[in-house]
Amino acid sequence: MKNGLLEINQVLGVWGSSLCSNQGELIESAPPTGFNKTTLEDIGRKAVDLLSSAEKSVTGLTEAVIYYSEKIMFLIDLEQAILIVFCTPSVNISMLRMTVNVITTRWQSDKKVQKRLQAAVVD
Amino acid sequence: MAEVLRGNLAQLSLLDILKMLSAGNRSGRLDIRQGAKSGEIYLQYGNLVHAVSGTHLGEQVVYTLMGWLEGDFSFTPDVEAPEQSISVSTEQILLEAARQADQWGDIKEVLSSTDAVFKISASGSTNTVSLKPIEWQVLAQINGERSVIEIADLLDLHEFEVAKIIFGLTTAGLLYEVTDSMNAFREIVDESFFEQLMVNFTEVIGPIGPIIVEDEIKLLGEDREAFPQSKAAELVERVSLEISDSVKRAQFQKQMVAVLRG
Fold first, then answer.
1. Which residues from chain B sit within 8 angstroms of residue A12, using beta carbons?
2. For B149-168, what is each residue's pLDDT tens digit?
3. Are residues B155 and B241 in the same domain?
């Protein structure tokens, strides 16, 4: 799982990434320098709120790109978890989206990853 | 007609050259070249009488040429000006040029060159900003692709004027310069990219693959021969959405992401 995040971080313009549960709890991270667990969980909870409230108005919404100051936050709903990618404006969103898809598709057939994601799900 | 003076602007500034020619009461044509751009300044007995660059004429051209910190120059003596486009005195022009040269010094700290490209800052300014009509016109042309020179041409303004406005807007926090790594995306993709895209996509989707690729290129408003690097990933992503099997789609994307990364 960590390797997947590190692969995402290799996309030009990506600053760091993290994976959190549907309640915002941190599952795994390869974060930007200076981001601790508390900060990442705080961001995770806000991401969950944002995606779940947006889903109420946009059916089938699975991702959101948030432009905040000079940074971009890319949120992807993986059903059991939320992937958060921190980017600079130079990021190529198509390149990032495809890289994320390659990795999350790989995770779908990885039993260890699935076990960790399922364990993190809060009903 | 022998050239008596030839050199590089990096070694001798245009202002210094003009001061020298003016003090020596020289007559002739000073040619300035920077890449594909060029300009001509004509002197008559040490007085600046005509300046031309592209479609621009007059003293404003002299000020624009002052902004070229690199490039070649050559002075050909005894060439008569084809017309007179400068009406103000040479002393006035040189004084104004010296003042602008100082301003160019400040501007160059924010603008790497007049080929620089700017984007509008998402965060904006922390203070209330009021813009003059001309500043608004320049701001409206900022799209992350047009250079300072291109904006000047579009608005029929001089480079210095546009550079000064962009300098002001940048220091106010409204704009930021697109870096070289971002500009790299403006390059044209290599034909080998399309060959690999066609082969990989046809392998997954069958012989209709190349037709879908050509259609998507058109939908992006581009030509295959001059397809920008900045849209290569978008093209791959759009094409990949035609693959209904999610595993095969991810496999194709993986191959193409590797190609895009080179």
1. 181
2. 888 878 888 778 888 899 88
3. no
The string of DSSP codes covering A70-116 is: TEEEEEEE-SSEEEEEEE-TT--HHHHHHHHHHHHHHHHT-HHHHHH
Over range B213-224, report the average pLDDT.
88
User: How far apart are the CA of A108 and the nearest CA of chain B, in angstroms?
Assistant: 10
Residues B178 and B196 in one domain: no
pTM above 0.80, yes or no: no
A72-116, pLDDT tens digit by residue? 889 888 888 899 999 887 788 899 999 999 999 999 899 999 988
Task: Copy the structure tokens of residue A42.
Answer: 């705080």
A92 vs B: CB within 8 A:
yes
- Say if residue B10 is in the same domain as residue B89: yes
Strand partners, B34: B37
- Counted domains in chain A: 1
Total tally of structural domains belonging to chain B: 3
Cα–Cα distance for residue pair A97/A95, rounded to 1 Å: 6
* pLDDT band of B185, cuts 50, 70, 90: very low
Give chain A's mean pLDDT: 85
Band (pLDDT 50/70/90 cuts) for residue B209 is: very high
Higher pLDDT, B93 or B54: B93
pLDDT confidence bin for B212, thresholds 50/70/90:
very high
Closest of B170, B174, B78, B73 to residue B125, by C-alpha: B174
DSSP H/E element including B99: helix B90-110
**What is the ipTM, given to two decimal places?**
0.85
CA distance B233 to chain A (A): 5
Domain that includes residue B241, residue range: 186-262
Task: Please name the residues in contact with A82: beta carbons below 8 A apart, sequence gap of 6 or more.
Answer: A19, A20, A21, A22, A24, A44, A47, A48, A51, A75, A76
Angle between helices B90-110 and B14-23 (to 10 degrees): 170
Q: Spell out which residues of chain A touch residue B233, defining contact as CB-CB under 8 Å.
A: 92, 94-95, 98
Do B167 and B236 fall within a single domain? no
CA–CA min distance B161, chain A (Å):
27
The enclosing domain of B127 has a CATH number of 1.10.10.10
Question: How much helix, strand and coil, in percent to the nearest 5, is found in chain B?
Answer: 50, 15, 30
